[in-house]
Amino acid sequence: MVEYATIMAELTHKNIILGITGGIAAYKAAVLARLLKAENANVRVCMTDSAITFINPLTFQALSGNPVHNTLLDPHAEAAMGHIELARWADSVLIAPATANTLAKLATGQADNLLTTLCLATCAPIILAPAMNQAMWNNSFTQKNIKRLQQYGMQLIGPDSGNQACGDHGLGRMSEPETIINGLKKYLQQQTPAPQQHPLANINIMITAGPTREAIDPVRYITNRSSGKMGYAIARSAQKLGASVTLISGTVALDCPQGVTRYWAESANDMYQQVKAHIAPIQIFIATAAVADYAPQTPATRKIKKTAETDTLTLTLQKNVDILASISHENPHVFTVGFAAETENVEHYAREKLNNKKLNMIAANQVGHKQGFDVDENTLLVIWENGKKSLPITTKTQLAEQLMQLINQHYQKDQIVRTRSNHETN
C-alpha cells in the first residue's frame, strides 16, 4: 500500500500550540482554536491557571480534539516531562491572548507555569497576540518588554484599537481570530526557505526505516526493537532540504512525514521488493531500517501449539537478502548510506560494513540498554572512506538534520568526482 502526504499550503499538518493566558479576550481563543482546526492544523492547547478562570478547558478539548495542558509535571506524559514533549512537538507557539503579565515573564525568561516553561524549552517560533487595557499597553514597562521580545525573535500580531471591556477606548484589544490566522500564515510562509535555498532540490532520495517482521506462524513473528524514529526524522529533514523522498517503512506507529511518499513493508523480502520496485529514479539511498538477518525457513501455515511432551521449540532460520549490499552492488550510480547498530567495537564493525558493502557512507551507533532503539535522543559516528565525524548526543530530529547536511556535502563532492571522471573517459 502506498501512502501520500503531500505538501499543502498554509497551516495543514502544522503542529501548533495555542497558549491561552488570563484575560477577557480568552473567549476569542475558542474561535481561534476552531479556525486552526478548520485549516487542518494539529492543535494542542496550553492554558494558564488564570485563563481557566475565564473559560473552561473542556471547551478547548472539544474544539482541538486533544486534552488541554496545564500541569508542568504531567504524570501522564512520557517521563512526566510534559513541557519538554510539547516543546519538541511544536512547529509554532501562538499565545492568544498574551497578557501584559505573560509578556513580562517571557521578556525576563521566567518559567513559573507550563506555558512560559515550554516557551523557554522550544526551538519553534513564538507568535504573540497581545490583549490588555490601553493604559497597560502604553505603559513604558510593557513597551520595553515588547521591544525585548522582538529582539529575541518573537513575533507580534496586533493589538488592535477599539472599545475595551473595561469601558476604555484605545490600543490593546486582541486582534480578531481571522486576523491572527492570516498573520500566522504570513509569518510561517516567510520562514519557508525559497526553492533556490533547497540544496537537495531535484534529488530523489529513498529511505528505509523501522523493523521487519519475519513470520513464524500466522500469529507470531521475529522482529527487533527499532521504532523507526531515526529514519522518519531523516525523511523529514531530507524533504525540508528540497528532496523528493520515498520512504519504505516497516510496521511502526509514526505518521508519514509531510511531503513524503510512503510504502509499507512487512518482512525483509517485502522491503527488498519495494526498494527494487522504486529504486530506478533514486540518486541517494539511505538504509536506516533494522532488517532481520534471518527468517524462519518454512513458516507454519497454522498456529504452532505448545504440547505437554516437549519444553523446547526448534526453528530453522535462513539468511535474508542483504538489501543494502544488493542495492549498492546493483546500482553503482546511487550514493548509498548505511546504518550500523552495534553493541561493541562500533567503529571497527561499521568500517568493515562500509568496505564490504561498497557504501559511500555509514552512520554507526551503540545500541543496548536505553541506547539507540526506541529513544528520542542518540549519537552517531559517521564514517566514509578517508574520514569520520562524531555527532554528539542530541534529539533524533537534530541528528537527522546534521546527518543530512553531511550526506549532502559528500554527495555533491561525489558528483563532481564522477563528472570529472566521465570527462576524462570521454
Mean pLDDT metric: 88
CATH architecture of the largest domain: 3-Layer(aba) Sandwich
Shape: elongated
Which class do the helix and strand fractions yield?
alpha/beta
What's the CATH H-level superfamily name of the largest domain? Answer: CoaB-like
Got a strand count? 20
- Total DSSP helices: 14
The largest sheet has its strands arranged as 1-13-12-9-14-17-18-19-20
Task: Briefly characterize the structure.
The chain has 426 residues and is of the alpha/beta class.
Question: Could you please describe the fold and organization of this structure?
Answer:
The chain is α/β, with parallel strands linked by helices and 426 residues long. It has 2 domains: 8-191, 3-Layer(aba) Sandwich (Rossmann fold), CATH 3.40.50.1950; 196-293 and 316-425, 3-Layer(aba) Sandwich (Rossmann fold). The protein is built from 14 helices and 20 strands. The strands form 5 sheets. The protein has a 9-stranded mixed β-sheet with strand order 1-13-12-9-14-17-18-19-20, with helices on both faces. A 5-stranded parallel β-sheet has the order 3-2-4-5-6, sandwiched between helices. A hairpin with a 5-residue loop joins strand 7 and strand 8. Helix 1 (26-38) packs parallel to helix 3 (57-64) and helix 1 crosses helix 9 (177-191). The protein starts with a strand and ends with a helix. 40% of the residues are buried.
